[in-house]
Write a structure and sequence with these properties.
Elements: H1 21-47, H2 52-72, H3 76-93, H4 99-119, H5 126-135, H6 144-174, E1 175-176, H7 180-183, E2 192-193, H8 194-223, H9 231-239, H10 243-249
Length: about 250
C-alpha cells in the first residue's frame, strides 16, 4: 500500500490531544529515565555481591515503569498499590533472597512480550495490526501476501522471545554463586558463572533481538520494496503512530 493512499497524519494520536503537551512529554521523559536506570541498578545489585538494597531499588524501578501512567493520573488505587509494593520491597532488601526476583526479571519480561505476540495469532496478529496502522487502513484491507508475511513474522518473534525467556530462566537457575538453585542450597548441576548470566541477560539478549530485527527488515525491504525509504524512515513512521495506538494495539 503506497503512502499516497494513507489518510493524513492529523488523525494519529487523537486521544492524546486532550492531555496537555507538557504532561505527555514529561511522562515520556520520566519513563525513559526509569528504563535507563534499571540496568544500572540491576548491575549495581549484582556487582555488590547481591546487595539487597540495590536489588530492591531495581525492582521498585520496574514497578514505577508499570504504574507510571495511573500514578501521574493520581489514581488512588495505583498509589495504594505502590505503597504496598514499596513496603514489601523494603522488607525484601534485608532478606537473603532479595536477588531472587531480580534474577527472574529478564525471563519474565521476555515471556510476557512473547505471550503478547503469541496470543494475537488467534485473531489479528500483532505485526499485522502495526502494518495496518502504518497504512491507515483496516487489517482486512491489507494484501494477502502482506497478511501472511506479518502473521509469520509475529509467530517468529513469539518463538524467538520464548526461547530467550527459557534460556534466561535456565541460566538464572544454574548461575553460581548467586543463582536461584544456590540461593536455596541446591548444587547447580551445570554451573554457569554469574558474570556470564549477567552478560546474556543484558547485552546478548539485546544483540540477538536487534540482529533479528535488522535481518528481517532487510528481507522485508526486498519482499515489499517502496514501503520505506530507509530504516530511519520506518522508525519515524512507527513513532508517528502515537501513544494511544501503542496502548491499544496489543489488546
Amino acid at each position: 500500500m503506497s503512502s499516497s493512499t494513507r489518510p493524513p497524519d492529523s488523525d494519529v494520536g487523537v486521544g492524546a490531544v486532550a492531555t496537555p503537551g507538557f504532561r505527555i512529554h514529561g511522562a515520556g521523559l520520566l519513563r525513559l529515565a526509569l528504563v535507563v536506570a534499571y540496568p544500572l541498578l540491576s548491575h549495581l545489585a549484582g556487582s555488590h555481591r547481591g546487595d539487597g538494597r540495590f536489588a530492591a531499588l531495581a525492582l521498585a524501578d520496574i514497578v514505577l515503569i508499570l504504574l507510571l501512567r495511573p500514578l501521574l493520573e493520581l489514581r488512588a488505587s495505583a498509589w495504594a498499590l505502590l505503597a504496598v509494593v514499596l513496603a514489601g520491597l523494603a522488607w525484601l532488601a534485608g532478606s537473603p533472597l532479595a536477588m531472587a526476583p531480580l534474577l527472574l526479571v529478564p525471563a519474565a519480561i521476555l515471556a510476557a512480550v512473547a505471550w503478547t505476540f503469541a496470543r494475537t495469532l488467534r485473531s489479528v496478529p500483532l505485526i499485522t495490526r502495526m502494518v495496518a496502522g502504518l497504512d491507515r487502513i483496516p487489517a482486512a484491507e491489507l494484501s494477502p501476501e502482506l497478511v501472511r508475511y506479518t502473521r509469520n513474522l509475529t509467530g517468529s518473534w513469539a518463538l524467538l522471545l520464548a526461547l530467550l525467556a527459557l534460556a534466561n530462566l535456565l541460566l538464572a537457575l544454574l548461575a553460581v554463586p548467586g543463582g536461584l538453585l544456590a540461593m536455596f542450597g541446591v548444587a547447580s548441576p551445570l554451573p554457569v558463572e554469574q558474570a556470564r548470566w549477567s552478560w546474556f541477560a543484558g547485552a546478548c539478549n539485546v544483540g540477538l533481538m536487534v540482529g533479528f530485527f535488522l535481518v528481517e527488515f532487510a528481507i522485508r525491504q526486498r519482499r515489499f520494496p517502496g514501503r520505506y525509504t530507509s530504516l530511519l524512515d520506518f522508525l519515524r513512521q512507527m513513532a508517528r503512530l502515537g501513544p494511544e495506538f501503542w496502548r491499544g494495539v496489543a489488546h
